[in-house]
Amino acid sequence: MRLVTPDEMRAIDSRAIDGLGIPGLTLMESAGMGTVRFIESELGDPGGARIVVVCGKGNNGGDGFVIARGLTELGAEVGVFLLGRADELTRDARANHERLDPECICELMDERGLLNLLSEMADAELIIDAIFGTGFEGAPRGLHKEIIAAINASERPVLAVDVPSGLDALTGATEGECIRASWTCTMALPKLGFYLHPGREAAGIVHVVDIGIPEEAVTTVAPLRSVLTEKEASSLLPQRDPGGHKGTFGKIAVIAGSVGYTGAAALTSLAALRSGAGLVTLGTPGSLNDILEAKLTEVITRPLAETSERSVSAAALPAIESLLDSSDALALGPGLSQNGETQELIRAIVKELSLPCIIDADGLNALTPEEIGARSGDAPVVITPHPGEMARLCGRTMSEVRDARENVAADVATRARATVILKGAASVVADASGEIYINPTGNDGMASGGSGDVLTGIVAALLGRGMSALDAGVLGAYIHGRAGDIAACAMGRMGMIAGDLIDLLADVYAELESGVYEG
Fold this sequence. Notes:
Layout: H1 6-19, H2 24-43, E1 50-55, H3 59-73, E2 77-82, H4 91-97, E3 105-107, H5 111-122, E4 126-130, H6 142-153, E5 158-161, E6 183-187, H7 199-203, E7 205-209, H8 215-221, E8 225-226, H9 230-236, E9 251-255, H10 262-274, E10 279-285, H11 289-295, E11 300-304, H12 317-325, E12 329-332, H13 340-351, E13 357-359, H14 362-365, H15 369-373, E14 381-383, H16 387-394, H17 398-403, H18 405-416, E15 419-422, E16 428-430, E17 436-438, H19 451-464, H20 469-491, H21 498-514
Parallel strand pairs: 1-2, 1-4, 2-3, 4-5, 5-6, 6-7, 8-17, 9-10, 9-12, 10-11, 12-13, 13-14, 14-15
Antiparallel strand pairs: 15-16, 16-17
Helix pairs in contact: 1-8, 2-3, 3-4, 5-6, 9-21, 10-19, 10-21, 19-20, 19-21, 20-21
């Protein structure tokens, strides 16, 4: 699903209203009634429920008036609080204000009005936030600040209309008080700030309301930024052939590990197996082979020539080339070390690369984007830098990477002729074609050693099934984060380790195969 900035959404709205002749009142009605339908589906029949709707003076408040009317028609007891006077409303908002029973509306102008709101919220079953829209920037002040704080303190379920008030829908920033929503019903398309921290926490469960904006209005603006929904993730998952065999489902070569870093090799290999690969063969330094044979019952191991530092040596190249000839995809880099000879080997492998490959960790430490881009063939490549690795790859500081994650990822993707997964909160997936995805899954409990190795194994397995680099990168990041979210719910974020993600991959694939998402 396309993901938009506030400016892009305004341009889409303008195109729909001014270019295609759809009245703003029609879009507002669709927004409000679509939200009412969501409330019915999420909370059940609202008849008899006490609901408080807090409205600002702009079109977001207008959506709130429509919602209040729709809920009243369904039998709910609705109290509407307007932060301002009716004569200050925008034109469309005023039209919907006039369609409400005046007796249910309170103009909230001062502390007395705030006390009335507090009294109403004490008995409310749901509070609807329609104060600020997508154009909000900065920090709420004065009475607005007090009201948002009071809503958060009420401990009542809160539904935000379009965007939680106080949230910057572009950056995800919350500079002051911000609504902490249980749900956000956003209009037409999800907003970028919902998937960036701390906006992701503020927005709660995001539901996109179809308000009838034609596809033509969206493609005119043509944002290339997207977020993968659970339905889209399910549709991307490669189908398994009931008559297939272990050679059918992808033969993955993993070149990984050095002394002290056998764990990286093991995690990558196991994650590939748990992601549906039929065969996984691990090439690792010869002196470490027995350790990994004992640790990895289902993985084939290949002892490789090694350096005096017990990393894979250049002499292993013929054996690796032979392995790659019989493989469908390659995972290169986890735990290989920064030994000079090993890094020369990595460069030699990438230069002649002829099969799909994911490069991570020490694989990236050996290369520049231009060296990856100069490989002899057109085999799909995914690279997975963390911010420190990305800073080296693009010649910027970590703070510069942090402040321009999308642009940095897109630039390196172009230079490397590859799909980039820039790991972090939230991970950015960028492709040389210009496509950018913001990954909606994952949490800070995944910030532990080995988590990136698991991602490498997942993506390698997807590449081995013939997926494009972009699809494998986008789906792999989604699956990796979803496993982390299940782990966080089951055991808390403090105690999670990378191995937990592997154990839970089966649950993620079961969700995607069934099309039933557990939330």
